[in-house]
Amino acid sequence: MNEPSAKEVTLQEVMPDLLALAWERLNRLAFNGEMRMPTIEVVPGKESSYTWNNNGSPGTIRIGAAVADGDYTQALGSSAHVLLHEMAHQYVAEVKGKYHAGDGPVFQRELQAAYERLKGVQQ
Ligand SMILES: [Zn+2]
Prior knowledge:
By secondary structure, the chain is mainly alpha-helical.
C-alpha cells in the first residue's frame, strides 16, 4: 500500500488544533497562565522553533511535522515535549523579557520549573 493510512492523515490534519489545545493546558498548568496564545504552525521536517517578534505579539511556535512520525502515542508524547520546550523559550522572551536564541541557563531553569509544576499537578 502506497497510500498513507487514514490514521496518519488524520494526525497530520489535527496536529495544529491538538497543539493549540495542548498549549492552552500547558500554559495554565506549567506556566501559571502567564503567556498569550502565539501563532502555532506545523512545518515540514524535524526542526521546531520559537520566534519572538519583539513587536508586542506573543511570537510564533513552529513544530516540525516529522515529530509526528511513527507510533501514534509516541508521536503525541514527543509533540508535547517539543511544545513544552518551545513554550519555555516563549516564556523567557514574553514573561521574563530575555530573548535568547539558544538553550542557555535562563532557559534551562524555566523549562525545569515547568516540568516541576507539571509533576506537582500529576500527584
Ligand atoms: Zn531550544
